[in-house]
Amino acid sequence: MKARLLSETEIQHRSMAEEDPNGNEHRSAARSTAPRCGPQHAGALQLTRLHSPDALAATYPWECYVFALAVFVTLTNLIHKWSHSYFGLPPWVALLQDWHLLSPRKHHRIHPRLDA
After folding, report:
1. Using CA atoms, how far apart are residues 7 and 69, in angstroms rounded to an integer?
2. Which of 27, 66, 71, 73 sits 20 to 30 Å CA-CA off 3?
3. How many CB atoms neighbour CB 95 within 10 A?
4. Alpha-carbon distances of 11 from 7, 19, 21, rounded to whole Å
5. Each residue of 68-96: pLDDT tens digit?
6. Would the pTM of this model clear 0.70, i.e. be above it?
7. Residue 35 and residue 41: Cα distance in Å, rounded?
């Protein structure tokens, strides 16, 4: 099965203008004297709707929760790794373990194990 060759008009119709790499330029916009950027641009209007103060206020608590969850999960794994490390720890981590602010290495030797 051979592909049909496109005419020059079809190629121009399907092609994107070289000076507009994002494909925002339309035939009518190319002839217009209005600027293609600024607050009247369709993309700017869509972003304004997505990031309005009301939309941000609605999603802000959830985004803060997800961010805090990611930070604490990461810290939990890191602190657990430190409790298994006996050499090469930063001095401030060893100090926090000695003060029992982080899980001390000696206490963590007795790791909970499931006996089958």
Report:
1. 56
2. 27
3. 12
4. 6, 17, 17
5. 999 999 999 898 888 888 888 899 998 99
6. no
7. 8
